């Protein structure tokens, strides 16, 4: 069994990073961390409020600081935000400090999983489905580039995804 110092989950909104991360951490005996939650805990406000007052640029700066700090820990499963790979320093931290798993699913599936929730400012638009497609087209090559393992979460439950990851780490 490969036991990397840390496991970093990357991938688009709605891929299941937080849900899978929580269960994977429990199954492996790692601590679970979530970079968006950490940002919200530190600022005391939610993600849409940060985007409203500081723009995406301000959010990315906070995200970079949090990722840099969390990546120094050992024995964590970290669920990152969908845009984490856009920042070169983050890509470098993830590669240096752990094993990166890209949770992959289609924009249609992402939409189905995120449609009812307004907590994601980048898709709080008139046509969220198209936005998800555009973001995916831009980011997919970067997710693949940073990934040590790619796992599909398309139309499947968390337990099955966690089982596959454990099997492939053996
Ligand atoms: C973002 C994804 C969100 C959150 C922020 C920006 C993105 O995280 O970090 O709204 O750029 O794709 P999730 O992937 O957990 O939804």
Automatic annotation (TrEMBL):
Binding site for Mg(2+): 18
Annotated ATP binding sites: 14-19, 120, 156
GO molecular function, one term: shikimate kinase activity
Entry binding sites for substrate: 36, 60, 82, 139
SUPFAM superfamilies given in the database record: P-loop containing nucleoside triphosphate hydrolases (SSF52540)
Main location: cytoplasm
Pfam families for this protein: SKI
Function in brief: Catalyzes the specific phosphorylation of the 3-hydroxyl group of shikimic acid using ATP as a cosubstrate.
Name under which the protein is recorded: Shikimate kinase
Source species: Halochromatium glycolicum
């Amino acid at each position: 069994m490969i036991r990397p110092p840390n496991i970093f989950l990357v991938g688009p909104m709605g891929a299941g990073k937080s849900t899978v991360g929580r269960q994977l951490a429990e199954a492996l005996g790692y601590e679970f961390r979530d970079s968006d939650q950490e940002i919200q805990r530190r600022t005391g406000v939610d993600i849409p409020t940060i985007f409203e007052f500081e723009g995406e640029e301000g959010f990315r700066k906070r995200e970079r600081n949090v990722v840099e700090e969390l990546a120094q820990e050992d024995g964590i499963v970290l669920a990152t935000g969908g845009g984490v790979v856009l920042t070169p320093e983050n890509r470098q931290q993830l590669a240096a400090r752990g094993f990166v798993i890209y949770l992959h699913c289609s924009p249609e599936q992402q939409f189905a999983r995120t449609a009812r929730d307004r907590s994601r400012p980048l898709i709080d638009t008139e046509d969220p489905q198209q936005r998800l497609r555009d973001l995916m087209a831009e980011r997919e090559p970067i997710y693949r580039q940073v990934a040590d393992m790619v796992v599909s979460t398309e139309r499947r439950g968390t337990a099955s995804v966690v089982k596959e990851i454990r099997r492939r780490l053996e």
